[in-house]
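Help: read this over?
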Amino acid sequence: MSTESAPSAPRSKLATVAAFAVCSLPALFAFEIFLLVVVAIPIFVAMFADFGARLPTMTEAVLRWRWLVLAAAILAAVIPAVRFWPRGLTREHVAVAAALGAFNFMLAQAALFALFLPVFQLGAVVDS
C-alpha cells in the first residue's frame, strides 16, 4: 500500500506547483502591461514627438485608453486571487487563471506592438 501512494505524492506536489505557476500568470502579465502602458509608451511618445512624426492609430488608441487597458489587466489578475484562492486550488481555478492569463498575454502583446509600431513607422520615414 505505501509503495503505491509514494509516487503519487510527488506528482501531486508537482501538479500543485504547476497550478500555482499558471495562476500567477495573470499577475505577471498585468505587471508587464503596467510597465508598457504607464512607463515605456509615454517615453517613446516623447522621443517621437521630437521627430515631428504622427503616431500610428494603434499607439494613439493605447495611449487614449491606457487606464482602461490597465484596469482590465489588473481585474484579470485579481479575479483568480479573490474568487478562488480562499476556497483552495481547484481545476476550475487553474482553468480560469489560465484563461485570464491568456487574456492578459494578448493585452500585453497589443501594448508591445503599439510600443514598437512608431519605431517601424519612423524607420520607414528615415529610409525614404
In short: The two ends are 76 Å apart (CA to CA).
